[in-house]
Design goal:
5 helices, 2 domains, 28% helix, alpha+beta, Aminopeptidase, 12 strands, 252 residues, Alpha-Beta Plaits
Length: 252
């Protein structure tokens, strides 16, 4: 592949995306796509390295005296939900679009950044170093993703992070806070007036999160959004009042 040939870069990136779609890469299970990425970069003449399921590389003429630009996106995906209408692992091109699990979030972004990295990889005299990072565990904010990789990459002055933003440049992100909360009750038989239902005890807290409005609103990012996303109990029977309930809140 000629790294200065745009058409070849596009064709190669599209082919790589098809392979990524066809290979399951759920968070913490990205070993196969990590190997695909490492092998693909190696075949393109790039000296790439792997840290667990993260794959990274530096431009050929890296100069520690120069500032560094990071190109980063992730290759892990969430699991397909039950409403998925297509085979999630069968890349399908329709109306100029490539469908498949991870094609949008964030395979398309990732292969575009890889193509950009390849274009500049062998060029001499660049004003900046360019570092490529295909990271893992992004969908779960895992510790073995970009958090693990950043200390290895060294000083980063700027970064472009690929995410599906409808081709609109995003200059910031809200961040994410996940709260694991436990409501305590007392077990009892559901058919009798006994026990303390932990779900009912959690309802005021759920309603508080639903109605809360942060006092400060960002002119760029808008208001803080809080959502109850998971409610779980350790109940194994339908006729038992749950003694405890675990709730997950996502804030961002």
């Amino acid at each position: 592949m000629r790294k200065d040939n745009i058409e070849e870069l596009i064709s190669g990136a599209t082919g790589l995306l098809r392979r990524l779609i066809a290979t399951p890469s759920f968070s913490k299970e990205e070993d196969q796509t990590a190997q695909i990425l490492a092998d693909w970069l190696g075949a393109a003449g790039v000296s790439a390295a792997r840290l667990q399921n993260n794959v990274y590389a530096r431009n050929k003429h890296f100069d520690a005296a120069k500032p560094t630009l990071l190109l980063n996106s992730h290759h892990d995906t969430v699991r397909p939900n039950k409403n998925y209408t297509l085979d999630p692992f069968q890349p399908l091109e329709k109306d100029g679009k490539l469908f498949g699990l991870g094609s949008n979030d964030a395979g398309g972004c990732l292969v575009a950044l890889i193509a950009t990295f390849l274009y500049f990889y062998e060029q001499e005299g660049l004003s900046h170093n360019i570092v490529l990072a295909a990271s893992a565990e992004e969908e779960i904010s895992g510790h073995n993703g970009i958090e693990l990789l950043l200390p290895v990459l060294g000083k980063i002055d700027w970064a472009v992070v690929g995410e599906p933003t409808k081709m609109q440049l995003a200059v910031a992100e809200k961040g994410l806070l996940v709260l694991d909360c436990v409501s305590q009750g007392k077990a009892g038989h559901a058919a009798r007036e006994e026990g303390e239902n932990a779900i009912y005890k959690a309802l005021p807290d759920i309603e508080w999160f639903h109605g809360f409005r942060a006092p400060k609103v960002s002119s760029l990012l808008g208001p803080v959004k809080m959502s109850v996303t998971v409610i779980d109990t350790d109940n194994k029977a339908h006729n038992v009042v749950p003694p405890s309930v675990i709730l997950w809140w996502t804030c961002g």
